Amino acid sequence: MSALIKIDNKEFNFPVMTGTEGEKAIDARNLRKDTGYIFYDQGYGNTGSCESAVTFLDGDNGILRHRGYSIDQLAAHSEFVETAYLIIYGELPTLDQRKAFGQLLRKNAHIETQMQEIFKGFPKDAPPMAMLSSIANALAAHYPELATNNFEKDLKQFDLAAAIALSKIRTIGAMIYRHTQGLPFMHPKDLPFCDNFLHMMFSEPYQEYVSIPEVTKALNLILLMHADHEQNCSTSTVRMVGSSGANLFTSISAGINALSGPLHGGANVAVMQMLQSIHDEGDDGTRFIEAAKGGSKSNRLMGFGHAVYRNFDPRAKVIGEACDGVLKKLGKSDPLLDIAKNLEQAALKDDYFVSRKLYPNVDFYSGIIFRALGIPTNMFTVMFAIGRTPGWIANWKEVASNPKGRIYRPRQIFVGATPRAYVPIAQRS
Ligand code: ACO
User: Fold this and answer.
1) pTM tops 0.85
2) Among 39, 88, 123, 378, whose CB has the most other CB atoms within 10 angstroms?
3) What confidence tens digit (pLDDT) does each residue in 116-151 have?
4) One of 77, 306, 324, 334 is an active-site residue; which one?
């Protein structure tokens, strides 16, 4: 089968491609060479920029699978580190592989004294995501032997670089929290991934954090929910930067910057701000829902709608269901959870949201769980980044391992000035 494109009465045939889940594409790699035209696709919503074997997403049917395993199965049976291994290496680990991976993460959890000094250059109220991307990039400066900007060499050391990225970005996240709170750093101990994070966040010099199984489980779940999500803005950024030959740490640092925007990872903060302001105004959500139907971008129901899902975001379902249980197990109640539930119920019955296929997305309930775990709002996007690191690593690896890979270099339609004569400054009006 092929696709026929007719331009200026000339016909051109292009091969079609089909993915393993039946997704169809026109292979337009020769389009410009053969026809002189390019496709205009602002935002790349109709452009496949790569072939990938990591994550399958079907937004119309609310399906999300990592390496073939549905997000529901992983949520029910796996934990973050195991899912990270699956995403990075393609298969669930055997017992020995899981043990070795866990040990490598523990061995590489520490941030060296020289790197800790970087924090001294940041004010206490520096934006956490700006600190995170800077220090993630500093990993490339600190481990130049793992970050040579030569795919062949960098891939030889991939296992170590991946473990450093995953383990240390988690540690840096906790240090950012301590820095913003003006607290001394708590260094990692020989603990499982999530417990170690909670220890580094919440231990005090004379009072060690005592692990609470429910809290560890909730953190595991929420990180797992963020572990990868196909070619989203930050992952595509990682791939784009990586396609120039850049090393893993530098590519991830770019992804962290992409994630920081309010339309991407920053949305979880916007949801909490919305719920808080509804609460402060004494509304139960009813007035806000009416206002959100006005169509203004500044008044949207945050945490609703998604660029790809036109059905329930399967992650929102899992997190929404977990929310109640987590609060109950921690013996906490949160008026913002009640408001969120009211909003969800009202929106799911309202023709405005139903007809536009607007459903809760992953950010709608995640902030309530973060809050229950004691994580402040300005750290939510950092938490997202810690969770998304496996996806960034796996996508960088695909780019670096592809012998036929090309540098990402989109085209444009130029709409600026046509040629004109230079005017000396004295003659300009
Ligand atoms: N509240 C109210 N109305 C909405 C919302 C919302 N959250 N989202 C979309 N709409 C309306 C639009 O006004 C538009 O209405 P119209 O057809 O009458 O003009 C219609 O639904 C379609 O909206 P689009 O902007 O075309 O939807 P798009 O797919 O481009 O945007 C987006 C998706 C950005 C996520 C949007 O739904 C939104 O702003 N949601 C709130 C922010 C949010 O939660 N972002 C997190 C996304 S998940 C993530 O990145 C991890």
Assistant:
1) yes
2) 88
3) 999 999 999 999 999 999 999 999 999 999 999 999
4) 306
